[in-house]
Amino acid sequence: MILFIHRKDLRIHNLPALDAIRSAQCSSLHVLILDPFLLRNERNLEHSGVNFLQHVARLQKQYSRLGKQLHIMYGEPAVVVNQLLLKHPIQEILYHADYTPYALKRDLELQKLADSLKVKLTSYDEATLADLQDFVDWSGRTEPYKVFTPFYRRWRTYINERFRPSYSATLEELETVELAPDLLESFLPPEEINKQLEDMRNSLEADDEYGVLMHTLDHFLSERLNGYSISHDQYAKEGTSRISHHLNAGSLSVRTIYEQLMSMDGDTETWLRQLAWRDFYIYQARLDPNFFRYENVFDQSELSTEHFQVWAEGCTGVPIIDAAMRQLNQTGWMPNRLRMITAMFLTKNLGCPFIYGERYFRLKLSDYDNVLNRGGWLWSSSLGFDASPYFRVMNPVTQSQTHDPDGTYLRRWMPELAHLSNKEIHLARPEAIVDLKSSRALAIETYGRILKTKETKKIGAFL
Ligand SMILES: Cc1cc2nc3c(=O)[nH]c(=O)nc-3n(C[C@H](O)[C@H](O)[C@H](O)COP(=O)(O)OP(=O)(O)OC[C@H]3O[C@@H](n4cnc5c(N)ncnc54)[C@H](O)[C@@H]3O)c2cc1C
């Protein structure tokens, strides 16, 4: 028997682990472990937790519709897996890899456990478009790419030449098994979470959830792809795909998305380049040993958290910042351009260490992803591999005038400003908590000094 642990792969199509189970021709036990650590502090009620649980509910429905077994267990992963190995004749454990520090530590525990019980443990990479291990070998570099453009050029050739087609096994072909009844009891999710999942399952309207996801993708590709290069920054028009919700939970495979994209006519490259940014951040997370520890690499003691709360509540007096934070707080969504502007405003104009904003987005973004969120915050605060230069401080007023000239977005989220003219509406209010010009000048001086404090640590070994 094979134990398959679902993680950020909440789907039943195009998964390497399903192909492996089919090839092994044996039964499989499919579990999803809700980790109390990751759901701590009522995370299940925040936008990011709600989005994740919605995908879990959708997955449960997909399994049950096919008459297959998926067991939702609640507990510390190594403890749960230990019990599973003791109660079931499991010969191999399969999962799809994740490279955050927490995931690596968790999987090391699983490896030790599997070794001690002489069970095979196999992980598969499936999150990126390019197979990163193969890409590194193929690109023949001794140092990782640190700048996006050369990475992208090589990556593009790789994708053309070596894109690995989709995985073909389907859940229908597999024989999933029941969980030992006492284990079900021992690792039952808390009442509140069970109820949340049940409500979510009941509110899923469609008979074919996967078909609905594919329809969303097809709709974007057929209706919006060609205008994307112009519209993606016009945030009032919401011209992007919002596919991040699905990519990050794994409810759609990035390979499926690529194959659909390549079947389209017109400008496919601009959007593909955005997907390459995603691969680039995941590449950095694996190859830059500082990626998850830049807060320790630079001395940021000059910065302060004084204005953090006001920023988070959207009360800074700078309309574009406050509108974007309101949208985030109320809906869990903020378009990419506004993520850049609000992050740069917090770290530069308000002089706050990036980890505070990063942590806030972790709770509030419904499409939260540990790697992409950190990548975005590193970029905005001029830290990391291919970050914005320290002397670049976006002017929020100019950004607002450029990307939302008639103030549609501002009027939507700040109705109290709706009466202002198109010219006035973008301007910082008299009560704004900082002066944009002087805070910009101060940020350039401060970050200039911070970047000189870099602790030198050698780039890590290749994969
Ligand atoms: C401070 C900050 C924090 C961020 N936090 C997250 C996060 O937690 N989760 C997340 O998915 N993205 C994050 N991003 C990246 C980006 O904002 C989102 O991926 C994008 O807004 C998702 O919208 P979409 O799916 O409509 O994108 P589209 O424009 O339709 O692009 C398609 C896909 O390409 C990838 N992509 C697009 N832009 C970027 C980018 N700048 N960097 C990396 N990948 C990109 C995403 O996977 C996205 O879903 C962050 C960016 C910043 C500046």
TrEMBL record:
Keyword flag Ligase: no
One annotated GO biological process: response to stress
Keywords, ordered alphabetically: Chromophore, FAD, Flavoprotein, Lyase
Cofactor(s) needed for function: FAD
Binding site for FAD: 228, 240-244, 271, 274-281, 367-369
PANTHER family (alphabetical): CRYPTOCHROME, CRYPTOCHROME CIRCADIAN CLOCK 5 ISOFORM X1
Protein name: Deoxyribodipyrimidine photo-lyase
Lineage: Bacteria, Bacillati, Bacillota, Bacilli, Bacillales
